[in-house]
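BACKBONE STRUCTURE TOKENS:
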Amino acid sequence: MPVITPFRRPSRPPDHAPDDAGTPGSAPLEARTALRTRLAHWRAWGTRHPRGALVAGRVTTSLSAILVLGALLLPNTFVALEPNRFARIPGEAVVAAVLLLCLPRVPRLVAAALFGTALGALTVLNLLDMGFTEYLGRSFNLVLDWGLLDDAQSFVADSMGGAAATWAAVGAVALALLLLVLMALAAVRLGELLAAHRERAARGALMAATVWMTCAALGVQTFGVPVATTSASKAAEAQAHRVVDTLRDEAAFAKEAKADRFGATPAAQLVPDLRGKDMIFTFIESYGRSAIEDPVMAPGVGRTLDASTEALAKAGFHARSGWLTSATYGGSSWLGHSTFLSGLWVDNQQRYRTVTAGDHLTLTKAFEKTGDWDTVGIMPGVQKAWPEADWYGLDKVYDAFGMGYRGPKFSWSTMPDQYTLEAFQRLEHGRERDRPLMAEVILTSSHQPWAPIPRMVGWDEVGDGSVYDGIEASGVKASDVITDSARSKEEYGKSIQYSVTSLTQWLERYGTDDTVLVFLGDHQPLARVSGNEASRDVPVSIVAKDPKVLDAIDDWNWTEGLEPAKDAPVWKMSAFRDRFLTAYGSTPHPTGAGG
């Protein structure tokens, strides 16, 4: 009689076992076993120490409530970050409680986790808004501003060192992920607590809803703010509107950029009244109205402007000055540069990409288009490929690596302004040439964090920049300034004095009867220096020996000298290009739908 044996499934080697196999040694099983073991240990500990478990549970619940309520009430600016903001009832908490009470367990867990994750994301966006408002005077743009975080890391690296920048980046990412996870866990914890005490929670939610609606209807306030609030919903709505507006603006601005009052103007009809002049357009980093009017910075900057005006007059130069409202604030200098030179309001990165990809006439390109000027760019802040040079009409560009500098960096600034100007003189302005020069010069020594600041040396001592080794080493450390508002103001004022002195001394030393200098600030310094209520105005000056150059702008009503009066005209920065071209004889020939 045959022997019948039970059927056995053939075993497979462990390396062929499916990932979710329940065989010993599989990762999922080990993870589940470890989790069960930890839970068992926790329950056992709770059984042995009931009072301790009760305290731990209450502490966890309290922290969860604080975390969720704090996130719901968190403002998106440092100015609004006051205790009274947290003495309110968030309507979103009432709605969420009611919703979670109505759901069965699994949907409740999912809804609580999603609610918490969304609240964590909103908290991250609010923190980004705080930083962007503090430094750039505007909220974070969810569509456009992620690339600026790389610039922020580079700035920290230049100011505080590469290690600090790396740790700051790692810390920021870790904080963002931690907020998402903790907020989700906190919401789940509170949702389970509500379900465990459903009747009492329902009565509490009803009472909270009644109080909220009553306070909202009567406009009840505590400590100067409404008790009933939906600030989190409004913040989320504002972010959504910002995204929609950004996407709509792209098409509208692309159409606007095609309209150009001087887009079809023949070369011979562009700036005919400046033929034969060496034109120098210079941007001084962060040179804003606050430097001239703030009581901390104004005395030193004012003395420098007065002394420079007098020294230039002795050399035969005279100046007129006014105000321009910049398209940017606190940073993103390229937006100010492109606005000033294009005549378009370029106030975000999307607009910048759109306009630089097109053929809208820039003020600098107008000179190149005539064929009567050599055009160059002096760009010590450029440290990578810069394709925008063609759009600006620059035949040649000297970047941070092209000016022969062998000295130390001064935080973000790759070289002192005096060296930049002396290199410009050596490489271009002082050369024998067959036709005049048009140059765009960017001065960077007044870039934050304003430490260490270079000091003036003899122009004959500048050399290859090695003279600055000792000056940089003995200067103020960026870490001692960057978090100190009062110190930042003082050092910022000194940096503006240095930049203005470098530029005006260069003009005294090397300027000719045919030199015309236009210089301005690209934007105000950040709010920590300029103040939360500061305007976006920057000073602008035109300096020349030839009286005809300044006579051409008499109807602008600008102030004599380098310091504009408080009541001097204020124009949008985008208005300058057309006014300048018109003042010096250019004939409009419009292109595009707006012509």
